[in-house]
Design goal:
By secondary structure, the chain is of the alpha/beta class. It has helices at 3-12, 28-38, 83-92, 107-115, 126-131, and strands spanning 15-19, 42-46, 54-55, 58-59, 73-76, 97-100, 119-121. The chain is globular and about 35 Å long. It comes from Spiribacter salilacus.
Length: 132
Amino acid sequence: MTENKALSILGWVKRIAMVGASADPSKASYRVLKDLTARGYEVIPVNPRPDLTEIDGLKVYPTLKDIDQPVDMVDVFRPPAELPEIARQAVDINAKVLWMQLGIKNTEAEEVARAAGLEVVMDRCPSIELAK
């Protein structure tokens, strides 16, 4: 994935489901969520913790399948071993992009997503790409 391709994707996506979103300001997922919303993206936090129902006024969904609106991109802050299942869920909800954050790569997830026609970005952060 080239820098230009990543930026191209960020140029057309509007609604981003963030799997592994956190309400903890010390966590990268929280900072990226804040940055993306400040840049005008609609971010939908996804976290299975039953006690986490809202992050900064945004409703938190327990899984991708629980989201009740179309999603352009799934941005993942989870361990690589969880990615194949997340990729399958991204396909099931008709997402267009599977984006794996810095340090996150999974070949099986990439294959699942690409086979279904999704764009795949691995080991990159959208906030960093947008800041370039």
